[in-house]
Amino acid sequence: MNFFETILMIIKIGFRNIVRQKKRSALIISSAATGVIGIIFTIALINAFFIAMVENGIKSGLGHVQIRPAGYEESRKMGMLLQDPLSIQINIEDHKIKNTHFSGRFEREGILRIASFTRGVLFIGIEENEKKVSHYSDWTNEGEFLFPEKTGLHPGTVPCMIGRINAEKMEVAPGDWAVLSLSDQTGTYRSVRCIISGIFSSSVEPIDKYTVILTRRDLSEFYSEKDDLYSYFVFLGESLEHAEKIKGSLQNTFSGNSEIEILSFSDLEKYFSGTMEMVDVFSWIFYLILLIGVALILFESITMSVFERMRELGIMHAIGSRPLFIFAMVIYESILLTIIGSFLGIALGGFLILFFNIYGLNLSYFSEGIESIGKLGSTVYPFLTPLNILEALYFPFLISIASAIFPALKAVRISPVKAIYNR
Amino acid sequence: MTLIQTKGLHKVFYQGEIAVNALQGIDLSIEKGEFTSLVGPSGSGKTTLLNIIGALDRQTSGEIIVGGQDLSRLSNTQLSDFRLHNIGFVFQAYNLIPVLTAIENVEYILMISGIKKSERISRSKEILNDVGLSEEIDRFPAQLSGGQQQRVAVARALVSDPEIVLADEPTANLDSENADILLDIMKKMCDERKTTFLFSTHDTRVMERARRLIKLRDGLIAEQ
To answer: Most buried pick, A163, B81, B187, B221, via CB within 10 A?
Structure first.
């Protein structure tokens, strides 16, 4: 038997059988399409979560690399301060890394309050270069960013920026004031009046709720009456891919300094890979359930198709068709139907993903849950890579073969006499 | 030259727990080029005997040698090949492959025999022309009448030039005109190609054309 011609005959018979059994074919194609839509949409959402968490993390101040006090990575204590920050700063400027910006920050926990509202927040003291390493400047959509610094403020007041959510809760606008309180270096509870200079919207609810921005110098003086306190320096390069390169370059610059440690984005966001692994596990469980459903429908439909064609298959046996030919024919029909369904699923699912990629998928209904998985915005933009599309085709393809093995063996074992004479 | 030889052929079926003796010791010898009819009432064992001779079924006991091959010694795959290269089948209910056109149904046998496409096409067209279907070669079985479908089945049975054609009540579903056409075609093939034809039938027209009649009753040869 000529191999190529045999394949062509299998393709011909398989295709015509699919056309002949329209309802069954439609059922298999639609179930495969549904499965693939589910898979690619899940993959696209995971991609969106991943990118949103990384981008929001970077934009909200993590940057690509940070210089922190030694021991920070292990203890994660916010109170740790950089020793001799000015010499660090000079060193950085002396060994400038191409296309990389940096800025210093000082952070403390405290309370934001007015008469009717109180919330525990993180005070972030920033410097003028902040607009080159984070997006707070871009996110300021009411009032003004802290820099260039305002002059002529009432003595004893400091400028600050708060998030949109807090501004709405407090019913304040730029120019209004609020009170910032913290426990200072000596443990004394202190407060300062802050004039709201600007209001920012980051699209990440926890950032808007729990962040108050001041100048680093004001926060440093508020905390210790000195203006030279730094918690860390943050660096932003061209892209996240350059983070390790920047880290390496800084490690060279500060190779003899044991009082600091240099941490890249992945060092700082260790929970991030854990979260993604968890999401990955859940999505695999979801795929599995989806694929089992598709496999059962395929299995039942192909088995029924074999039972309905008993006589025809019996005739093929009777006139001398090889068992392998009949086996391949049944498997091919299953593969063909699943592939048609998969491509349909990719087309429909792709269209759906494209729509949400352009207009965004608003997850605000689940915002409580989103807070718990980090810096995910309320709106995400699902997307697919060509590799994702191949993944979405690969599993249904395997399922189509696995589901058709039993019916194909059944077709091979048909007794021609029993099939032809209905015995 | 003896083409088909059976000795003490027995076949027992089980209907639930009840044993049915379909064949009870058939001794038969058929020469090459014979045009033979198996006749007898329903349940006499005609179809069972045809199926065993055609390597579609296995005997319970006894010997069967077809074309020099002891069929009881062949595996299922070898039986498949044996059927492909030696036997042509014509069934009562036509039994064409519904998704293939008339010419494709005929060509299919040649394709699985490994014949080249150009030869397949010319042989298929020629045999379909011989059975009077040169205009209907691209029609699917559902687009053909019963008589036309049975003629395609005969063409399929004959196209690979088998030594034996087994026909199980081939005229049962045909009107007189179509039955006569079909029998004339088969008789002509028998005469021209020396193909051995073995029919099971109740049809007197078949019996009239047969050179030899074998009467079966209760799984035994009652008269030859």
So the answer is: A163
